[in-house]
Amino acid sequence: MPEPTDDQRDPLSSALDDLVEVLARAGIAYALIGGLATGYRARPRYTKDIDLLVDVPQVALPALLDRLHDRGFTFDARQVIEEFTRHHMAVLWRDDVRVDLLKPVLPAYRHVLERAVIETGPASPIRVATAEGLILLKLLAFRLQDQTDIEALVAANRDTLDLDWIRHEWESVFTVDDPRMLWLRDQL
Questions:
Q1: pLDDT at position 77, please?
Q2: Phi, psi angles (nearest 5°) of residue 105
Q3: Pairs from 9-16 (Cβ < 8 Å, separation ≥ 24)
Q4: Per-residue pLDDT tens over the stretch 92-145
């Protein structure tokens, strides 16, 4: 079966493919996180956005944004640079697809990025956070959808989860008796 053309692919997959290609060509370390990544590690779920941990040096950010703009992403470059450097997060758009870029400031986030694994993407390989990394990030955010995602990640990966890694990373930020960690223990 022939590969679908850009016009035939859904906007989310098309935006993800272009993001991954631009980041790979620029040599930027990244990891897919959020709902799309949860779909790789557990069951697919509906999401309208793309969440990426992106380790881009500040000096390389303007050139990266130029490349993304050339691929149809829209944003105010000055605002993105300011948000990414000051608040460690920035938002881009590609049509109706929101793209959240998160800078791995905390060591735990950097470790999630470093442990990401290359998976088969819609059109090209993509670096996806591990199940453990996703659980850690979702424990930190701990919204209702994050809790649902954690339950799905635990169910799909129960026999292979590196719980010691999750505990170690958690303890670099919070205590083991934090209610979120106690909630995770109940899920296991």
A1: 96
A2: -80, -50
A3: 9/122, 9/123, 11/94, 11/95, 11/96, 11/97, 12/36, 12/47, 12/48, 12/50, 12/97, 13/122, 13/123, 14/94, 15/50, 15/73, 15/94, 15/95, 15/97, 15/99, 16/50, 16/121, 16/122, 16/126
A4: 999 999 999 999 999 999 999 999 999 987 788 999 999 999 999 999 999 999
CATH of the domain at 122: 3.30.460.40
Residue 49's pLDDT is what?
95
16, part of any domain = yes
- Burial per residue of 62-99, b for 16 or more beta-carbon CB atoms within 10 angstroms, e otherwise: eebbeebeeeebebeeeebbebbeeeeebebebeebeb
The pTM (predicted TM-score) of the whole model is 0.92
Are 134 and 153 a contacting pair, CB within 8 Å? yes
Helix, strand, coil percent content, the chain, rounded in steps of 5: 55, 20, 30
pLDDT at position 1 is 36
Residue 165: DSSP 8-state: H
Domain presence at residue 3: no
User: Which segments in the chain show pLDDT lower than 70?
Assistant: 1-8
Overall domain count for the chain? 1
